[in-house]
Known about the structure:
The chain starts with 6 loop residues before the first helix and ends with a strand. The protein is built from seven helices and eight strands; from the N terminus they run αββαβαβαβαβαβαβ. The chain is of the alpha/beta class.
Amino acid sequence: LMARFNVFSLIFLIIAIIGFLFSIQFSLTGNFIHESFIDFDFWNILTIFSFVMFLVVFLSWRKLEAILVPTGTHEADRERANKGAKYYHEHENREPEVLISGSHDKKPFLSSQPGHIYKYVRKRGVKREDILFEPYSKNTAENVVYSCDVIRREGIKRVDVVSNPSHLWRFKFLFEKARDEGLIDKEVKIEYIPTRRNFLFEDVKDGVYGVMHYLYYLWKWKDKPLKSLKNGRWRKF
């Protein structure tokens, strides 16, 4: 709820309060305060207009940027969470949210992979109300398709994907495909944030796995529509 109190809604609320106070005459008689509304004039109009604008902005405002952090290995989860939290704080002026993508595989949430990422980012100062969760994806293709559902529902206009370099190759290929298929609006800007400097700085195991799966995804999804995957649901923490 507090996340909706952005600068514009607060400005309109303050103006509405000031207008309301000026639209009332206070006259002190003995130990009592007598209040009487003055004629319907500028201050009344300003108060009503500002309060209506406050309600409109407050109820419709959404954060427009999400930092997508997918699950991986235990070490990858830690690196991605650390990088995502760091990026979150570096761009606080854009008021981003952190979108954790990955299935908890019927485990208690806090003991699952997405639960570990959640705890990592919370310890690093990411606010609870700034965290979104996509809890159904079990691979990178589902990360993209199910996250697109969240992006559409939340009205997000910019997505920053955080992962190791060779994993980002798959994300870039799949997000471009999702855009072509209309799963995500063409106006949505997507940036890719590597956890390490580049592919050469990855662990050998992660690098080999990343290359092999990138080639596999190119073969598997080249002519197969991502729409064939069932859209996931989402919930906000």
